[in-house]
Amino acid sequence: MQILVPDDPVFISKFIAIEQPLLYSLYYFYLSDLDSTQAKLISTAYDRWDQIQQRLPIPLQWQITAAGDCRQHSAAGYVLHDLNSRELPSLYTMDLPLDQLHTLQACHSMLVQVEKTTGGPLAEALTELADQGPDLVDDFRRALEVMNLKAPQRLLEALQRAPAAGPVMTLILDEALRADYHDFCSRVVYVLSGGDRFTYTSHLALYP
User: Fold this and answer.
1) Which residues pair with 81 in a beta bridge?
2) Domain range annotation of the chain
3) Nearest by Cα to 143 from 45, 30, 75, 38
């Protein structure tokens, strides 16, 4: 399916956290302790995350792999502006195979169920990983929900027509597209904020 992914530091950090530390740690440090069903799903989800990461637009890939430089706009081929010539945080189109997304969703659902149990190797592994800091399983959910947001068709088509690479061009969003942009970005921020009003308001300020 065709989706829009935001050039948003919060989204990028949560997407990265699916792999490191969550799936990476489960795969390399705990997999042999898990039952075969859990181990297979985690292994498959790890592969699917990598496949999705490779499908990300180039400007987001370099942020995740830290393998490129900061020529973000040149890689994208366009920058977004509103009618007042204000530059807007970028959105990019992406083709996301449903089977890849569904595998990650199944893995997340399994982890949520395991968190509700009181014992077992996977529950113990998640407890140990939780000691490292943020709620990794919930961050997993938020990243998936952003990727599962329905993109406004009008905005999606406008960005699909924009060049994916080459000389930088300015893509000006008219009033209708600007409204679609604001609606979509507001939904992204709402998902990432987890319902916290202060976090939502502060984050939304990144989108003029």
Assistant:
1) 87, 172
2) 2-204
3) 45
